[in-house]
Amino acid sequence: MDPSAPKYFTIIDYVIFALLLVASMSIGLYYAFTGGRQSTTREFLFADRSMKCLPLSLSLMATFQSAVAVIGTPAEVYTNGTQYWFIGCSYILGLLIPAHIFIPVFYRLHLTSVYQYLELRFCKAVRICGTVTFIFQMVIYVGVGIYTPALALNAVTGFHLWGAVLATGLVCTLYTALGGLKAVVWTDVFQTLVMFTGQLAVIIVGVQQAGGLSETWVKVRDGGRISGFDLNPDPTVRHTFWTLGVGGVFLMLSLYGVNQAQVQRYLSSRTEKEAVMSCYMVFPCLQVALMLSCLMGLVMYACYGNNSPLEQQYITSKDQMVLYFVMDMLQNFPGLPGLFVACLFSASLSTISSALNSLATVTIMDLIKPHCSMTEARATLLSKMLAVSYGIICLAMAYVVHLMNSSVLQAALSIFGMVGGPLLGLFCLGIFFPCANSIGAVTGLAAGLLISFWVGIGGFLSRMSSSVVPPFNSTNTVAAGPDNITIIDAASRPVGLHGFYSLSYMWYSALNSSTVVLIGLIISFMTGRTKGDDVASGTVYPVVRTARSLLHKLVEPSACCTSHPRHKIDGHKEINGNVKEDAGIQEETETFLPSNPVSHVEQETTV
Ligand SMILES: CC(C)(CO)[C@@H](O)C(=O)NCCC(=O)O
Ligand code: NA
User: Fold this and answer.
1) What is the pTM assigned to this prediction?
2) 65 touches ligand 1 (CB under 6 Å)
């Protein structure tokens, strides 16, 4: 059979794909007609603040794991080897810090959106700047998320491009608008399982086609696809242990620490402990997801070696490789291509729905409600209409993405770093630096975004114009192990402004968040820093005191049994999350700052 001929779906494949959409829709309908029937914003946006950690952790993982990762990671591993796998190291600190610093601060303030924190800590203007930046980030990201699976499907199977975009966009918008956060979380759970199953099925069949496990291993090892620790400190090398393991921590913090979509899940937990647990449980889920997508890249290499379908010009971009591989290898397994396409779209649906729900949340809570009072029923109706509107805006954005052209994984992670990075900096400025003031915060954010777009767009343009150094592709991999790559890079290392532009995209988040903190502090000191007493209580994390008490516990282990306040949280287990004004938590909050906590938050949160 001619390998360049388009591969077609069988009827079973279509049925499986349709089943995914029907099942997701049904979950949406179920939550539209049960419980409180989505009649309050508390239910629609916060799932009644009663979620448990298992569904939450799967949902937390699903939010930023879209078809982009399912398609992009194997393509990356196929071309450049397993170096990217080291991003898994960044998950450790990238989740521990949110669990023990961001969640306690945000949860105890009873926020309605993470941007409300910015108003409590700084002022209304900072809150609005943060909200607008977030909306900008998520709309672009969702555009990429809707477009990616549809494009790959179109290129390989001839499936109608805009048909797929519209089908996913509309189904997703509908179940998000009908079922609220409960539907979003439970479809995430279902879709994550479909995603894992699809990937696993392809890997198993792929290993079989490559001649078994040991044969697969020999092929990828001889092909130089197993990378060791690359400890090259050069920040312009795209993927090294430092860019992935350290730069990745900042990326993770911007996503799992301060991104509204994730914080909303922490806030909808029954208890703070449950929120922290869900954050812990994301770790194994993320590692499984990363492992499956990296393995898929290796299996693909074992099957094609250096004769990639891209090289043979059966396809036109790296991002079509995974789907080509699936259609090529799974031809004789009716239903499996459909399962994988369901996997791909599951990954994206779970991302889009989380994004739409969080976009509706910030728009109502940060932009509308503070400025005009309305009844609960009105606010809920408005939230649903906002979810639909954002669905349509994101569909339009998919068209804009269609006009751009870049490797989807790098594009998505660059957006996180370019827009999420400055936001992370803004929150860090507030949480760790009591002296920072509002003017510093706004100026810092502006400076961070400026540098970010300068480097990001400069880098994009200079990569476009200087395709002198060919991307590391399969022709020169035969002889070149990972060491040779470094030499090629070093020889052509760019200088001056070009050096600045060629900063690895994995450092964007770190660079941009540090810029915000640095500029924010300088401006704060120039315009009169905030005095300790003027900082709203509970909005600052006491770094020094926590470090000192940790040290104390290490030196004197017996002291922890008497002075540790943990038993107070445990005492809450049986108390339902609604009763948060309980004395135990008040006391906990007081360990942050010794004055009356959350008094001024209440008017807005306990509607
Ligand atoms: C963001 C991480 C690193 C962790 O969640 C990973 O899921 C990923 O590479 N995501 C790429 C973007 C996407 O899949 O939409
Ligand atoms: Na997803």
Assistant:
1) 0.86
2) yes
